[in-house]
UniProtKB/TrEMBL annotation:
Region listing for Disordered, in residue ranges: 1-21
Domain of life per record: Bacteria
Database matches in InterPro entries: HAD-like_sf, HAD-SF_hydro_IA, HAD_sf
Record-given protein name: HAD-superfamily hydrolase, subfamily IA, variant 3
Segments of skewed composition (Polar residues): 1-10
Pfam families membership: Hydrolase
GO molecular function, one term: hydrolase activity
Keyword annotations: Hydrolase
NCBIfam families (alphabetical): HAD-SF-IA-v3
Parts forming coiled coils: none
Amino acid sequence: MTTLATQTAGPQDGKKHAEPTEHEAAAISDVVFDFCGVLIDWQCGAALRGRYPDSLVDRICAPDDPYGFFDYEDRMDHGEALADILPNVRHDHGDDIADIFADYIARYDDSLTRIIPGMESLLKDLKAAGYGVWGLTNWSYETFHFAFDKFPQLKELLDGTVVSGVEKQFKPNAGFYRLALGRFGIADPASSVFFDDTPRNVEGAKSVGMHAFLFDDATHARRELQLLGVRI
């Protein structure tokens, strides 16, 4: 693993935060980002297509997937190990599907197709302006390393990342956001902004006092930050 909870230290020494203007209700000091769907374009089918029949890949990647790949992956995001989940997959769906799921996890980096357009520039601009820039993700401890292996610039730009599979806590539970705020050295949740592509995770962040927005694209995220007084 390249980044676990031990790398989520507090704000860097000497970091300059933007000062509030008179009309700002609170000064924003830190911005927190989800990973898949916000920083990274995750496509399940990209790790499967070309290796298995298209009809099978379409079923696996469909919202109503009869093989439960998303459910098994969610269990990994909650902290379970692949070795503990695979027997369940074999029992539920047979050896062939279990082998495909294991192969999918082994080549998980193939599903990480690109950095979301405009997000690298947004992170760079926030860093240059002195804001704290962080990651908060529901992701398996066994596969999270692929994110930084494939996109090392994200590791360089983020001041730290808290991963659900490491902590065995997860969004949208309030405790997970509070854990992250503590790791990031953010004493006042209202001084932070969170972006996620899942509505319940946005609501979870709001429940602990963070500003939070449903992510659409980098342009809209930048505009939301500017409306809060973030100088980028």
